[in-house]
Amino acid sequence: MRKPLIALAGLAVGGAALAGLVFSGALNRSVVSSKVETPLTAEQIKQLAPHGAKVAAAADCYACHTARGGAPWAGGMPFETPFGVIHATNISPSPEGIGGWSRAAFHRALRDGIAPGGRHLYPAMPYTSYRGMSEGDVDALFAYMTTRAPMPVANAKNGLAFPFDQRWTLAAWNFLHLPASVAEPDPERSALWNRGRYVTEALGHCGECHTPRDLTQGLRQSQALTGAVIEGLEAPDITPTGLTRMGFSPASLATFMGSGLSAQGSATHQMFDVVHFSTRHMDRADLTAMAAYLFDRDALAEEAPPAPPTPAPVAADVTARAEKTYAGLCAGCHGAKGEGIPHVSVPMRGNASLRTASASGFVRAVLAGLPAQSFPNGERMEAMPGFAADLDDAAIVDLTNWMRAEWGGQAPTVRAQDVASVRATLTTRHAAGE
Questions:
Q1: Are residues 143 and 52 in contact, defined by beta-carbon separation less than 8 angstroms?
Q2: Mean pLDDT, range 342-354, rounded to an integer
Q3: Does the reported pTM lie above 0.90?
Q4: How far apart are CA 138 and CA 179, in angstroms?
């Protein structure tokens, strides 16, 4: 009896000690300098705001802080997490948003994850990545945001259960997962690579979606950019190996990020929003730097894209069933030989969705369909209907294995239970193509 009591007492003492550290602020590690305590002048704000617009685009602020059909910058966008739903907050200069925030308060929220009054932000807001932003870029973003139109929209209530609704617990989370310092430029690498790292890791916060997380939802940095599942959708491996597997070269990746279209297919779901609201507005030099960093290159030269994948063998009966399904449901838009139709649908031959390690993204598209999408320069892809009601799991297994083998060079490893698990996770939001 004494041992359990001693254990409970130890836990109580440990918990009390942790709580004391949290409330004392001892776990807080700020990278914000005292220089930002000095307010920006009206003239400085005017001069910085145009650059701030570029920073806001690169940091993809609008896509997360504007709900579908909602007022700009007014928040409300829901994010599904393992702990419940978190809503993006109002960041317009209204009383409900950042109206009245000081320059220093904005810096601390963006880089330390702590809002005025010591209120901890949930890491659905990627302050762990924004921590690496430069002081100048944060100032420019502050100038831009404070010159937007105020939107008097109340913040939506989060749907988090106890204890995840207790913000003070995030002090311990930050101690575990918030970098203690900011990465400095690597003198052993080129200016192009270093700029690419800054754009990718800090501004673009690519790792927030493309890096797997542990049980506490901290990023597994040892597996950085190797792919993850976020809100039920696959964010693929974007390491040099993963990008090459999908058929990208540095040049085609920069093109894809700038337009949402390339020989590898079109951006869909959250990646479409990233392109639409963020990367298509970025300077070509930054897109090139991002591609250089993701391919781990110090310089980029003209190079041919990776060779098309060699078709993998598929059983004759699977091929016969899949070809019949493809001819009846897919060929009208994607072409009899997977060549696609310009301005209507993307080619499937060599499509990145057929070349990823996981087939879940492709299976989800077959089940739920995709919305019509508009891209820069008047380009457009028509809506794709979902076939969840038309095809059973066995038929989708045949179609997926055949297409991945024929045009993606992947061995036919998809099973009925794989399709069933994707079908079971479909939500109204996914079906709407969001």
A1: yes
A2: 93
A3: no
A4: 18
- For residue 239, what is the domain's CATH number? 1.10.760
Check whether residue 282 and residue 320 sit in a common domain.
no
pLDDT in tens, 162-185: 988 999 999 999 999 998 888 899
pLDDT tens-digit series, residues 196-220: 999 999 999 999 999 999 988 899 9
Radius of gyration of the chain (CA): 24
Q: Indicate if the alpha-carbon torsion angle 282, 285, 288, 294 is positive or negative.
A: negative
**CA dist 412 → 100, 312, 400, 401, 406 (Å):** 58, 8, 8, 5, 10
| Same domain flag for 399 and 329 | yes
Q: Please report which helix (H) or strand (E) contains residue 54, including its range.
A: helix 42-58
pLDDT above 60 (res 429): no
Q: Is 107 annotated as a binding residue?
A: no
Closest CA to 25 of 89, 125, 112: 112
Domain presence at residue 303: no
User: What is the domain range of residue 215?
Assistant: 191-294
269 labelled binding-site residue:
no
Q: Are 55 and 278 in contact (CB under 8 A)?
A: no
The separation between CA 58 and the C-alpha centre of its own chain, rounded to angstroms, equals 13
User: Is 64 labelled as part of a ligand binding site?
Assistant: yes
The annotation status of 281 as a binding-site residue, yes or no, is no
pLDDT higher than threshold 70 for residue 430: no
330 is in an annotated binding site: yes
User: Does 240 have pLDDT greater than 50?
Assistant: yes
